[in-house]
Amino acid sequence: MKDIPKQPMTGKEKRSLRIIEAAMQLAEKGGFAAVRLRDVATKAGVALGTVYKRFESKEELLIAALEMASRDFEQQLREHDVFSPEHSELERLESLFRLFTNFFCSNPNFARAVLRSVSSGEPVLADKVKRFHNWIVWLTSLALLGESPEERPELPMKWELKFQDTLESRVSAALQSVWFSALVGWSGGLNSEEDVIMLVKSSVELMLPGYYALKEATSSSEEA
């Protein structure tokens, strides 16, 4: 299939991109406190009012920065062949969550800033936070199944609606919760980067036998 050429960015899209990139740079340098919207506007070369038209708070802006960074992360997953069916479920999941953890911990100031934003509890951000968690569940489900994002291109929000009752999505949601809790612990100094990885690996090792048993029981029931 021939690739559809990308449409050139509009002026509005270019300004939004500059704003998000400016927020990322400020967060990487000084964390959450450094992302002041006035400073973001100055760094992006736009009026402060332009920032407020697009983002109501710095939490919303940082979540937008996380969404942009996540697209680069998906490319890393492809390069590391995380979804290959040639690897076991344990190997795929361990590799996925190691890359997830490295992705955040390699930029600690930015990571702590976005984690604070994701955990802010602001009702207006609920859908965007939900999309972030669904994205993790979506990728985890793909790793568990040994299928690439190209094979299951559904958006994470659609994934929740379409696959919320599958065994894979339930296991993936549980693993996502373990990982996110461990990462929040890292953000607060409770866990090291390796602690986060080992906590998730232990959870995977505990969950997989039950997953295999339930999958076999479901398969036998369908064949009967």
Q: Which percent range describes the beta-strand content?
A: under 5%
Integer count of domains: 2
Shape: elongated
Mean pLDDT across the residues is 88
Low-confidence stretches: 1-5
Please outline the major beta sheet.
none
Q: Structural class of the helices, strands and pairings? A: mainly alpha
Stated plainly, the CATH topology of the largest domain is called Tetracycline Repressor, domain 2
Number of helices: 10
Q: For this structure, what is the CATH homologous superfamily of the largest domain?
A: Tetracycline Repressor, domain 2
**What is the percent of helical residues?**
over 70%
Radius of gyration: 19 Å
Give a count of the beta strands, DSSP E runs of length 2 or more: 0
N-to-C order of helices and strands: HHHHHHHHHH
- Give the termini separation: 41 Å
CATH class of the largest domain: Mainly Alpha
Based on the structure given, which CATH architecture of the largest domain is correct?
Answer: Orthogonal Bundle
Protein architecture, described:
It is a single chain. The chain is mainly alpha-helical. The chain is built from ten helices and no strands. Helix 5 runs antiparallel to helix 7, helix 7 packs across helix 9 (167-187) and helix 9 packs antiparallel against helix 10 (193-223). 29% of the residues are buried. Mean pLDDT is 88; it is low at 1-5.
